[in-house]
Amino acid sequence: MRLRHWTYSCVLIATIATAAQAAAFFVDADRGNDSNPGTSAAWPFQTIQRAIDEAAGRPGPDMIQIASGEYQENLSISDPACLMLSGASGATVMAANSSEAVIAIDSGDISISGLTVTGGVVGISAAGAQAASIRLGL
């Protein structure tokens, strides 16, 4: 019930936020390029981390749409706003470094759906700094 409430809250915040604050980013391992703007499915980023970094640099809630495919990377998330990662069917994040967490969350209100996570020492680590607040929805 809490997850549903939190997800609805994030969606409501995203809906209310102005266009200048909220952003959607697109990632496609096969067709993307990290020098693209990443703001449309026609011009996606190639890596999820590039989209996470771009989202963290903008105020307000953000959504990252991840196309199906394999993404070999370790992700680090530190976003003070609401960040939603949404994977299409078949989207898989495989650890580039198997001795680290596949997804390490340091802070933020993070929602992850539709992603298969594999290959790291742990799949998702949400162990931020002592003063950091983390809310995680899966």
Describe the structure.
By secondary structure, the protein is of the alpha/beta class. Helix content is 17%, strand content 41%. Strands 1, 2, 3, 4, 5, 6 and 7 form a seven-stranded parallel beta sheet that branches.
Chain-wise SSE layout:
Blueprint: H1 2-16, E1 23-27, H2 48-56, E2 62-66, E3 69-72, E4 75-94, E5 103-118, E6 124-125, E7 134-137
Parallel strand pairs: 1-2, 2-4, 3-4, 4-5, 5-6, 5-7
Estimated radius of gyration = 14 Å
Q: Name the helicity range.
A: 10-25%
Could you give the distance between the termini?
12 Å
* Assembly state of the chains shown: single chain
Q: What's the shape?
A: globular
Strand content: 35-45%
Determine the mean pLDDT: 85
Structure annotation, total helices: 2
User: How many strands appear in the DSSP assignment?
Assistant: 7
Major sheet description: 7 strands, parallel
Helix and strand element order? HEHEEEEEE
Low-confidence stretches: 16-20
Q: Strand pairing plus helix content: what structural class?
A: alpha/beta
